[in-house]
Amino acid sequence: MTNVTGPGTGGRKFIVADDHPLFRAALCQSIRATFADAELIEAKDMDSLQRCATEHADADLLLLDLHMPGAQGFSGLIFLSGQHPQLPVMVVSANEKPEVMCRAVDYGACGFLPKSAPVETIAEALHAVLAGDVWLPAEVASQCATEKSGPNEIADVVATLTPQQFRVATMLAEGLQNKQIAYELNVTEATVKAHLTALFRKLGVNSRTQAVLAISSLDVEAPGQFTPPAK
């Protein structure tokens, strides 16, 4: 789904990706409170987000929910950063654990915005990342600076996947069988097997179970009920 609002000229362009329509609307309203002439493009899942990122390659910032349908935790962030390295991505999530925020930045995010953040904090975060800085809540920033994680081979692989391989990997991690994946993608089972063979080779694994374990290492515990941005 792509829902473009705003004049489309002269202002900042934001992609807002979240599967919850009420939160998307609240976040868009918060963005407009800071950038009145902003152009806003909305996406509700990874498929629509991939289209948005391709069609709006000139966007100034992508605000990405960490639990988008069609992605496995951090895999969406990693894949999009690999496909569109020129597009800054700020993660937005109700999961406000410091270690999750730090991992998001380690995986390429330019910041992490808690879903409970008030409008004033959202404005501060947007200005910071648009200026080229990395933004995190003050109480977390120092912790992330001292707890850098090392290289992640699975993340490096996910960043190189083709869009179709990424879809297959996500469906595999969700427990779908080849026949189901073929039906969802409208391709033959032979095509799915070819994608799986390439995926296994990239991951350095020999079985579906090993592949699922590898991909699931990027997963993040789903948060509880979100709180819309405070007005």
UniProtKB/TrEMBL annotation:
The keyword Cytoplasm does not apply. Pfam families: GerE, Response_reg. Keywords: DNA-binding, Phosphoprotein. CDD domains: LuxR_C_like (cd06170), REC_NarL-like (cd17535). PROSITE patterns: HTH_LUXR_1 (PS00622), HTH_LUXR_2 (PS50043), RESPONSE_REGULATORY (PS50110). The keyword Phosphoprotein applies. Residues 154-219 form the HTH luxR-type domain. Residues 13-130 form the Response regulatory domain. InterPro entries: CheY-like_superfamily, EvgA-like, NreC/VraR/RcsB-like_REC, Sig_transdc_resp-reg_C-effctor, Sig_transdc_resp-reg_receiver, Tscrpt_reg_LuxR_C. The modification 4-aspartylphosphate is found at D65. Coiled coil: none annotated. PANTHER family: HTH-TYPE TRANSCRIPTIONAL REGULATOR YHJB-RELATED (PTHR45566:SF1). This is Transcriptional regulatory protein LnrK. The gene is lnrK.
